[in-house]
Amino acid sequence: MHLSLVCRAKPVLHGYFRSSCSWRVRIAFALKGIEYDQVPVHLIKDGGQQHTEQYKTLNPMQQVPAVEIDGITLSQSLAVIQYIDETRPGPPLLPADPKKRAQVRMISDIIASGIQPLQNLHVIQKMGTEKVQWAQHFIDRGFQALEPLLKQTAGKYCVGDEISMADICLVPQVYNAERFKVDVEQYPTIKRLNETLLQIEAFRVSDPSCQPDTPEDLRA
Amino acid sequence: MATQDKPVLHGYFRSSCSWRVRIAFALKGIEYDQVPVHLIKDGGQQHTEQYKTLNPMQQVPAVEIDGITLSQSLAVIQYIDETRPGPPLLPADPKKRAQVRMISDIIASGIQPLQNLHVIQKMGTEKVQWAQHFIDRGFQALEPLLKQTAGKYCVGDEISMADICLVPQVYNAERFKVDVEQYPTIKRLNETLLQIEAFRVSDPSCQPDTPEDLRA
């Protein structure tokens, strides 16, 4: 056995139990069957542990997740997910067909660029009393776009019948929608896909309710 | 192949996301048609029922290519890269690819969406401060990352999707009076890239819909 394999350290995920971006990475690791360590970063305590000098060296954007893997540190969940996909065996997280790949990336980016950044903690903290309305506005706008797109692309999952990065992005975003009291019933395709995906082991084990840093009162 | 239609880009001369796609087409030497979508006139042409069928997010760009319609500039760029010959827009090495995507996403998820038109319109008189805040925050993160990853370009010595994202974001920074001098690596990379033909031909100052008073 090669020494490099014996000494290869497990990936380390710096994240927060309820961060949708951290959850995406946890799902990807679970789908690929990759063991990893978690170092919790509490986004509220101590003024937000993502703002420490130490954490800033891992991710100068001062956000979670950051992942130490194969001797490098990566941030931005979709960059991490595609890196994992390109370097680890197991079910592919993007389809082989270029048009389907593009649809997976389009759906993922609608969520990861078009919705989540507008309702993440840093932005919400600037909104004060208007935060729920603000978050609902951007989630609804994004879901109003996703619903017709997913009607075209979805089979059993977001794009066709294979689980992909689009599904990985969808479930945590629906969780966020529910936290902000968005009525997901208005989006039947999103609702149906979410319910299907929540039955899958990789989505369940990575759920915010059962992470090392899940608070007792929120544990499943 | 003879009947293969040219791709059609629905965009706006000054939209940084549209510019990214124009750069990618130019780097690959792909001819394409442009259909301008004026983001202000008529209440914003991105809000018409017709445009909504192309992109239900009601944003630019949207690209009709190979019989499908795609939105989200980085999905378009990677599709072009995976289906067209020419210089690769992402490196072959997986770690470098990840760094290219990380840098691209810091811009495309971490900066631009917080200062795009729809959000800025909600900020009223505070819009410049708001935009500066998010651009500065993103550039403060990019500067140390680029110091590590950059060679001649954002990641090593080959032009990539990261460079494609950087130049239009610096243009936006300048529009909002962000002091880019504070970010010497970003400044240096931007100046290098602006010399490259693909970045010049796709510049907002020389598009079909560039207003006369803003033409180069």
TrEMBL record, chain A:
Residue ranges constituting the GST N-terminal domain according to the UniProt record: 9-92
Keywords tagged on the record: Cytoplasm, Isomerase, Phenylalanine catabolism, Transferase, Tyrosine catabolism
GO function terms (MF aspect): glutathione transferase activity; maleylacetoacetate isomerase activity
Reaction(s) catalysed (UniProt annotation): 4-maleylacetoacetate = 4-fumarylacetoacetate; RX + glutathione = an S-substituted glutathione + a halide anion + H(+)
The enzyme's E.C. designation: 2.5.1.18, 5.2.1.2
NCBIfam families membership: maiA
Protein name per Swiss-Prot or TrEMBL: Maleylacetoacetate isomerase
Organism of provenance: Notothenia coriiceps (black rockcod)
Gene giving rise to this polypeptide: gstz1
From TrEMBL, chain B:
Pathway: Amino-acid degradation; L-phenylalanine degradation; acetoacetate and fumarate from L-phenylalanine: step 5/6
EC number(s) recorded for this UniProt protein: 2.5.1.18, 5.2.1.2
Species annotation: Notothenia coriiceps
GO CC terms: mitochondrion
Ranges of residues in domain GST C-terminal: 93-212
One GO biological process term: glutathione metabolic process
Family: Belongs to the GST superfamily. Zeta family.
Catalytic activity, reaction form: RX + glutathione = an S-substituted glutathione + a halide anion + H(+); 4-maleylacetoacetate = 4-fumarylacetoacetate
Cofactor list: glutathione
Name of the featured protein: Maleylacetoacetate isomerase
Domain GST N-terminal stretches: 5-88
